[in-house]
User: Fold these one by one.
Assistant:
Number 1:
Amino acid sequence: MIIHRILTPGRTFDGVQGGSKKKILEFIATHISSDIPEINTEELFDALLARERISTTGLGAGVAIPHCRCKYCPQPVGLFIRLAEPVDFDAVDREPVDLVFALVVPEGEEQEHLDILKALAERFHSSATLEKIRSVDGEALYQCISG
């Protein structure tokens, strides 16, 4: 599975207090930039926000996949959040989101970006998989998503 190449246990978060879509995007930008020093927090936040303005990344069924390209991103990077409480993410089904997988890819990596988005969409399409992701604890959360 392609996901294990871009996600680490250190970028897998459980019980995050989201509050709003904007706060979640700030959380993503802060944590990715602290893990990947080449990436500037403000630039990443702006890129994520700009992508959301184009169209929502809330897929439905409580899942969002915010994503963007980033000039200084050395390789594709993922970050997963299981929120403590669902938040409005302007999802296509108008349901709140509790599972967020962020993807940041280098500029110019268009095919890889699409391949990863496809793998993520497939992973989060199954209701059985979503139920498992929502029910596991600790290290099992990372394993469930990346596995």
Number 2:
Amino acid sequence: MYIVGLTGSIGMGKSETSKMFRRLGVPVFDADAAVHDLLKRGGRAVRRVEQAFPGVTKDGAVDRPALGARVFGKRQELRRLEGILHPMVGQAQRAFLADAQRRRLALVVLDIPLLFEGRGEDRCDATAVVSAPYFIQRQRVLARPNMTAEKFENIRRQQVPDTVKRQRADFLLATGLGRRHTLRHVAQLVSTVHGRTGHAWPPKGRPRRRSNSHPSRRPVHARNRIRH
């Protein structure tokens, strides 16, 4: 089973790109969706989040805007929240991979917003980064409800810069030229890795140090038609 880690900074189009993989029949683990499940009514994380941040739950679910207000711009509070959620998301991810292996799937995608920030690339056979020019990124994010320029810039500062992600990626998917353009290159990525043998799952011993110098992991850009 070959594992592609999909990531990208806020507003770069990762969610839409993730849908394209599904459209092509590739199973995707969505870390954001896993968090939503943990915080919804009856979710496994609701009680622990309420204990750590009293008053952020409503009708048995975490009030996400209220929680966001408690941790926004507060590094220590954010780390406390991550300490609750990340292990639970990791457990869900491992269950997804174990199920995929049992089903003998050839290719899966791990959609992880903070892939490089959390060294998630060690759990993947290759990484794909979605990217768009800054002005498009900013326009997309500021169009979201309750988003401000200050909040946007604060989020960007907490993420690995887009330029660094592009350098570290095995595949670069440009999302600034329209959905049809992106879909075409997602399909090319799927075709490129089809039939490759993965080595990231099941994990063996210490995390692997991945290197883009490996011949099968050279950075390949969408504008270069994802060719090796």
Number 3:
Amino acid sequence: MKDILTAPFVEEMKKMTANMYRLGWDERNGGNISYLLDENEVSEYLDTAHVCRTIPIGFSAPSLIGKLFIVTGTGKYFKNVADDPQTNLGIIRIAEDAQTAELLWGFADGGKFTSELPAHLMSHMARLAVDPQNRVIMHTHPTHTLAMNYVHELDEKALTHTLWEMCTECIVVFPDGVGVLPWMLCGTNTIGEATAQKMKEFRLVVWAMHGMYGAGKTLDETFGLIETVEKAAQIYMLTAHLPRINTITDTQLKDLAELFGVIYRKDFLNL
């Protein structure tokens, strides 16, 4: 059996968490990632019949029974994942009762998955129903996006429209727009359910005054979605206090979306 520490999915998680920490998006133990794995690939590195221990997940996830995820741990720092993946990451399988995670590897210090796991799994269920290729849910605290929360109207149409105006690529990268939730208590099933509801129509959901949830087929794609929003938010924060002389018009946004053949939120434009 191959060494689990050389598995591509472990290497991807090491690189991604290190990069997100370097960018300043995931201070201390902020942020969490869950990544749906292929059992055949995992079985090259682990005996998937061997369960180290079980951990309640705090809700019922029947559509995820038998599915495997690599997830970041509660209280763990992204900056430490690369040096000690077996302590800061874990591979879990959703058990037959739909309410228990079977730990197959990781959390070597006796720890457990992120406290946001219910929100992650609920979002996975919502996104898989829309796109069966979805594999990643990523929660992070991108600096300029968070700053923008305090000075911009937290309305989905208004926020998306402003972000689309900031960079030519934006409407092409996230044509479905950005969902928004008001400030809510994190680490609860309530915010998980609200996030999952938004995930039915958005791949990106802002948690007001907290951070962002992103969904995608790969770690790179999901990171790229959040990265593009963050770049747009940075441009907004650099220019919001200045008179605007130029902008990308709604007609130009429409032309961009149609040129690239993306399905965009027409109701988020003023045409």
